[in-house]
Amino acid sequence: MERALREARAAAERGEVPIGAVIVDPAGTVLAAAGNRTEADRDPTAHAEMLAIRAAAAALGAPRLVDCDLYVTLEPCPMCAQAISFARLRRVYFGASDPKGGGIDHGPRIFSQPTCHHRPEIYGGLAEQEAGELLRSFFKARR
Amino acid sequence: MERALREARAAAERGEVPIGAVIVDPAGTVLAAAGNRTEADRDPTAHAEMLAIRAAAAALGAPRLVDCDLYVTLEPCPMCAQAISFARLRRVYFGASDPKGGGIDHGPRIFSQPTCHHRPEIYGGLAEQEAGELLRSFFKARR
């Protein structure tokens, strides 16, 4: 999660919403790390999790990240949650909870849908305070 | 929708699930057209809609596709539905309904969530028979 926080801080420095994500393989090796890039890439799908999933799939040469785990500083949105399911990630560790935009514990609760075919194990609240503080100070500075 | 069906047929010829998507600007000019590429790109996020959104945003140099419309041969999944919302697409025209994996009229019904901040107008059932037949014959041939 420390690596994901570093990616989030780097995103903030680029003027992006500070969210970072890391994917590790079953041996704990980092396959991919990314921060949010929606502004830099002018791409509404360029969330940290999506970029990490795409990079990890490219690194493995496979569209399924079996037995791999994701660390992300904020509760994933519905788009990213569904991508996590498609990617067959084993575990998701997330930092701050996101009542407004989250898609795991909030909104459509993607993994609780009967039409969701792969549900990762979920561990929320890791480094929650630091992850949340990064977001709060980013939005405070922009207001 | 005819162009989206052509993309879907081309996807089938590549061995991909036959789904195609097209994005047009307010003047009706095609900004992007794509077929599903999850296998070719080894990317679990490479659905036709995601590729079309990313290409259209790149073409416009903007992460928001204001007043642009999406044509897609199958009801979008929850990942694509959320990406459609983030991209601020104005209208979504889709072909076949998808009770198993759809995210608009089925499953998490992304646009009906109170946490969904942009809801496009939705028009389902366009060229439904042809779009559905493409999918049925693809899966029948694979069984």
From TrEMBL, chains A, B:
Report which superkingdom the organism of origin falls in.
Bacteria
Task: Enumerate the transmembrane spans.
Answer: none
Q: Which Pfam families match?
A: dCMP_cyt_deam_1 (PF00383)
Q: Does the keyword Metal-binding apply?
A: yes
- Cofactor(s) required, per the database record: Zn(2+)
Q: Which CDD domains match?
A: nucleoside_deaminase
> Which positions fall inside the CMP/dCMP-type deaminase domain?
1-105
Cofactor: binding comment: Binds 1 zinc ion per subunit.
What residues make up the catalytic site?
E49 (proton donor)
- Matches recorded under InterPro entries: APOBEC/CMP_deaminase_Zn-bd, CMP_dCMP_dom, Cytidine_deaminase-like, tRNA_aden_deaminase
Q: Which UniProt keywords are given for this protein, alphabetically ordered?
A: Hydrolase, Metal-binding, tRNA processing, Zinc
Can you state which reaction this protein catalyses?
Answer: adenosine(34) in tRNA + H2O + H(+) = inosine(34) in tRNA + NH4(+)
Q: Which GO terms describe its biological process?
A: tRNA wobble adenosine to inosine editing
* Protein residues bound to Zn(2+): H47, C77, C80
Any idea of its EC number? 3.5.4.33
Q: Name one GO molecular function term.
A: tRNA-specific adenosine-34 deaminase activity
What EC class does the entry list?
hydrolase
Question: Assembly state and interactors?
Answer: Homodimer.
Q: Which family does it belong to?
A: Belongs to the cytidine and deoxycytidylate deaminase family. ADAT2 subfamily.
What HAMAP family does the record point to? tRNA_aden_deaminase (MF_00972)
This molecule's function is given as: Catalyzes the deamination of adenosine to inosine at the wobble position 34 of tRNA(Arg2).
Q: What is this protein called?
A: tRNA-specific adenosine deaminase
State the organism of origin.
Answer: Enhydrobacter aerosaccus
Taxonomic placement: Bacteria, Pseudomonadati, Pseudomonadota, Alphaproteobacteria, Hyphomicrobiales
Q: Which gene encodes it?
A: tadA
